[in-house]
Structure prediction request, 679 residues.
Amino acid sequence: MKAFRRHRTFADRVSGFGKGISAAFFTRLLALCALTLLINTSAFAGDDLPDWFRQAAKSTPSVYAKDVPAVVLLNERTVKVDEEGKITTYERYVMRVLTMEGRREAHGLATYTTDSGKVKEMRGWLLRPSEEVKKYGKDQILDIALDSNDVFNEARARVIEARDEAEVGAVFGYEYTSEERSVFTQFDWDFQDRMPALVSRFIMNLPAGWRAESVTFNHAKIEANANGSNYTWELRDLAPIEPEPASPRVTSLAPRLAVSYFPAANAKAAIGKSFEKWSEVSRWLFELSDSQAVADNAMIAKVRDLTANAKTELAKIQAIGRFVQGVNYVSIQTGLGRGGGYRPHSAIDVFNKSYGDCKDKANLMRALLKALGIPSYLVSIYSGDPTYVREEWPSPQQFNHCIIAVKVSDETKAATIVTHPQLGRLLIFDPTDDNTPVGDLPDHEQNSLALIVAADAGALLRMPSTPPEANRMERQVEAILGADGSLNAKVLERTAGQAAVNERQAFRRLSKPDYLKMIERWITRGATGASVSKVDPLDNNAEGKFALNVEFTAARYAQVMQGHLLVFKPTIVSRRESLFLTEGLRKHPVMLNAHAYTETVKVKLPDGFVVDEIPDAVKMDTPFGNYATSYEVKDGTLYFTRSLVVRGATIPVSDYEKVKHFYSLIYAAEQAPIVLARK
Prediction:
């Protein structure tokens, strides 16, 4: 949903801390907009376009690849702060549709919070290739909840949707004016998403004597054009950011700006919060949340019940973690303009009602652990991009999610423990992700920078990265090959860690018929025409494991040649993941997640046949991964093994050839056939 959100306002940042705009919100938005367009579809031919729109529409973009859907012609936001701290925002945006898919980019969005802001004016225009103009005034603008998954949310959005009326070559644009009082004196600005942008600028107008400072991410330092207390940051001719397999998220590729502003010493009014170091961010978040982590007698009794049979410190933490994961995820967002989006609800209320959002669930777990005498701390993190948070800009606005750090003794061993310079050993856990148990961490949170919220002792820490063996898949295949090329096979898979999470998510998300179809598609990718007779999944979430047993037959697995030869691949079952890093050219680094894989295949060969050709064994060792295969024939049975270990790493583009070579050799090895000859 990043492309839809474009640039984040305060409402985006604090609404449902831990969530972005949901897919449900997007679906609801399109349905509502379609209804509005059916009601009001008149074109305003001859309506004058603003000069800034006409000027942007005349821009001549570069020639882009055929799959670039749209180009941004103008992207401009002006933020004006008055001496009382009131913030007025003016935004102008113009884009051109380049392909049919690019029509979905023809939309406008202005967010606000009902308790601290409002959108004063918003309007848009669609200029068709025929020069006909469609105007979007207040009757065509929707006002909806920013996230429809929330029970209540003071963050709302004004929306213009023109996708159904846009066509290739059309130009869409909008502008709006909004007012707010922010709890912060900080802003961030994305100069682009994946689309190319011809002109993108952020302007800040401050009272005389005030000053602004900026930090640039994903780009060389962008110096402001300053005129007194007025600042302009601008970039031009930004190329499209093409998606590539295993590349960093666009949030770590697109240029973005972080701006903090500071009032004059004689400022008349107290304005929002500014931060110069991470301990100040920790102190602010701690003061918002600490009083909320209180347990009552009912909660203390529940803790005793949950941990009655737990013999170790880790077992007690696991028992409480499982309970909190079972608390329903429901969000109620109030007081956003006063920092409410960062303040958890009372742990007692969350316990009694059995629902809450990410910060509520982490805070509840903290209160329950406190009843056991186990200290813990909230952790602010960015979920979805482990490279998003940057150390050089202390700000709570870099985070969108909340998890927990549990102080543990030396007796507790887990792959997700980090060491804090003052607090000691901390076990990191995400109570919101019910697919990942205590002792593991979602892969999109691993190795990211996150803030331990511990008053003045708080610090930005690198989150743990689990080793490959913690995210492993072990597969055994036993098969009987017939003289006619038929195959009967049994597959036994055992996964752990994030490998098990991937299996568990599919098993829980899909209905039983859809899950069976998914398994059948996977089996038939390796064994064409296979008929699956058994699918037996077994989820052991408490231990972070998942098992799958499959049985199938394939009538013509091996190719029969002139009645004398049988040709087949020993890699009977295809990989669950594709070998995607074999493309020729690449623009972005390669991000590899740590995982390990082993497979043992036993194939009973048909009577009357001997092995005529067998592939050579393969062994590759690189800094980022190892791969090996082996073959042995004994007592009429073929034994084939393959193993892969990938270490978590970010590989620069300059070393992509090494990655491509590694995966290309794997692909070749797994396509190599075995030839049997009749005696």
